[in-house]
Amino acid sequence: MPRRALDNPIVPAVLGLLLEQPSHPHQILADLRERSDHHAAAITRGTLYNTVAALAEAGWIASTGRERSGNRPERTVYALTDEGRHELVRRLDSQIRTPEREFSRFLGAVAHLGALGTRGAAEALAERARRLRQRTADDEERLTRALAAGVPRLHVIEAEYALCLARAETAWIDSVIDDLRTGSLTSPTGPATSAPR
Known about the structure:
Elements: H1 11-20, H2 25-35, H3 37-42, H4 45-58, E1 61-67, E2 75-80, H5 82-97, H6 105-110, H7 117-148, H8 157-182
Antiparallel strand pairs: 1-2
């Protein structure tokens, strides 16, 4: 298995789930998708199975046996090893201590916001803000339900962080829209073409 599979950004998430309890890859995939929209969009079954194979080869996880549920095929259950726990702690400690500039598609698009023209930029940002507000409300509701169901806050702390980022982004977008509409932020050129709807 290529060493680069261990550099996959889902490695800490997989190790973290196995820190909670042993599991099989099918359940790990379901849990990752349920807990994070980011993981839901980014993880394929093939990627996860390749990552699990690489983690097992590295000795960070180990098979604890196989289980069968109903008519489904047997599934290999994995648990975190001591070496895997050490690696998880090492990675998390480094990622938490060291801020990195994380590039997003939105950041790349904002760099060229002027290409939409003042009106187009304000309209596009207003639509994003509307969608962000809806997603934030949905995420707040999911977090509230999880906490009410007894999920420890520390197990969903990343949801709090994501909500904080979404609220900050929405506030920034609102301020830029206001600047565009009042004329304190202007585009040096108009839009080259109309944006598709």
